[in-house]
Known about the structure:
The chain is built from 1 helix and 8 strands, in the order H-E-E-E-E-E-E-E-E. The chain is mainly β. The chain has one domain (37-137): Jelly Rolls (Sandwich), CATH 2.60.120.380. The protein has a 4-stranded antiparallel sheet with strand order 1-8-3-6, with no helix packed on it. Strands 2-7-4-5 form a 4-stranded antiparallel sheet, with no helix packed on it. A hairpin with a 4-residue loop joins strand 4 and strand 5. It is elongated and about 50 Å long. 19% of the residues are buried. Mean pLDDT is 84; it is low at 1-26.
Amino acid sequence: MHRKFLATMLLAGALGAAGCDNTVEDATTPAPPAPTTTDTFTGRINVNGAQTHTFNVAASGAVTATLTEVLPDATIGVGLMLGTWNGTSCTTVIANDNTIQGNAVIGIASGIGILCARIHDVGKLTAPLEYKLTVVHP
């Protein structure tokens, strides 16, 4: 009698477990990346000059500012930074003071907001410099 009762309980437990949808998902599976936006800025900086460009970030994620073109000389080093925009100025968060054409500065936006990219002379310019800056962000 005891065996029959135990077998019935095991069968009931198995049927009960089969009726539940207890799926376990891998917690390490990353969420799909947020869609990105690409902004392209062009301009000119003079000797001892700088230019700041602002852009809106719609979500958290990677932000990459790439100096994609420098004229007349792609080997001239300039300062490139990413920061936060406070409505008046760009507060530096990440900077590279020897950026040449093709180099990038990469950071992580923690959420929505207005960020900025700033390019500036670090004492190496002897004439105005034309540039193209590409920023990819969420």
